[in-house]
Amino acid sequence: MLRIADMGADASVGSRKYVIRFRAIARGVSDVSLDSRPIVYTYGMDEAMSVSSNVLTLAVEAAQDASDNANLSALKVSPGKLSPAFATTVREYEVTVPYETEMLVVSALTEDENAVVGVNGSTGLQVGRNTVVVTVTAENGTEKRYYLYVTREKEAPEPTKAPEKPEPVGFEKGLHASQTEGGILLSFGGSYKVSEEDSAYVAPTGYEETVLYVDGIRIKAYVKRDTPDVDFYVLVLEDELGVSGYYRYDREQQTLQRYDESRIELRQVVEEDNTALYETLDKYKSQQVFLLFTLAMFLALCVLLLLIVVKLYRQGHTDEDELDDNL
Strand, coil or helix: what is 120? Predict the structure, then answer.
């Protein structure tokens, strides 16, 4: 609203002129006009005066000493980085951003503090190549543009899982076997040989004999009785120093270690024919009966000798008493 109070106005003069000065805040062109019909009244009276108004077009130019520097002193983007590295004289750059990026954040500093920076095209990035324009306007109106060619990558397809191949019969992840002239060799962080002395060993307590297939090769082993899911096997192996012993193989944890032999009963007599074994046991039993009989006879003989000695001792004392009486 514009109000003008003129105490010395005189309608008889015919016309009066008022001057309004504007201060320009930026370069450019602007229209100055009244948005409705102006009304002016004489002071102290309700008489309206005739008023005319025109639309003025103002062109604001830069000052003669205004700077023409439209250079950038620094330029960075996020995410991604410029290629090549920023330089004031380089006007075009390549930027690659991941698929998830829809907006590029542009940070720009001007060499002249009165220059103005504008960014266009940094939002709504599409998959593929996009152009972002950084416009620098100097104080005197000089413009310089920097171009960023932003490539938004395609969405990465979800990785497809390869179909799982069924494990071959007798396949062990960490344990492998091979047949050589010297026998069956096992490799498991070292070299082991299936002991040829396994006939001298018996199944541990609670275990029974079975067969473990490794790379299709049959290997004698022991497993716990009445266990549907077998994860532990006891093997008779010979290490690289030629020492045989029990080893416990854990299929789940993929470990192979010496088994506690104190829990294993070594077989003293090994016969393929069980009849011979039973005969040997009967022989041992007969020897035990003979020893018991001999011991009993020895004890009886000792008792008999003791009785004879006692009797002789008493008889000797009796004879001495009779001799004393006769004297």
Answer: strand
Annotate 258-310 with DSSP letters as a single string. Answer: E--GGGS---S---SSHHHHHHHHHHHHHHHHHHHHHHHHHHHHHHHHHHHHH
The answer to pTM > 0.70 is no
Q: Which residues pair with 127 in a beta bridge?
A: none
The residues near 249 (Cβ < 8 Å, ≥ 6 apart) are 175, 212, 221, 232, 233, 234, 235, 255, 256
**CB contact set of 138 (below 8 Å; sequence gap of 6+):** 66, 67, 68, 69, 70, 112, 114, 115, 144
Q: Are strands 92-97 and 143-152 parallel, antiparallel or unpaired?
A: parallel
User: Phi, psi (5° rounding) for residue 279?
Assistant: -60, -40
CATH architecture entry for 72-152? Sandwich (2.60)
E strands, the chain, are 28-32, 40-41, 48-49, 56-60, 72-78, 92-97, 105-110, 116-120, 128-137, 143-152, 176-180, 183-187, 191-194, 207-214, 217-224, 232-238, 244-250, 255-258
| CATH 2.60.40 domain extents, the chain | 72-152
The 10s digit of each residue's pLDDT in 233-267 is 888 888 888 888 888 888 777 787 887 655 554 44
Q: What is the mean pLDDT of the chain?
A: 80
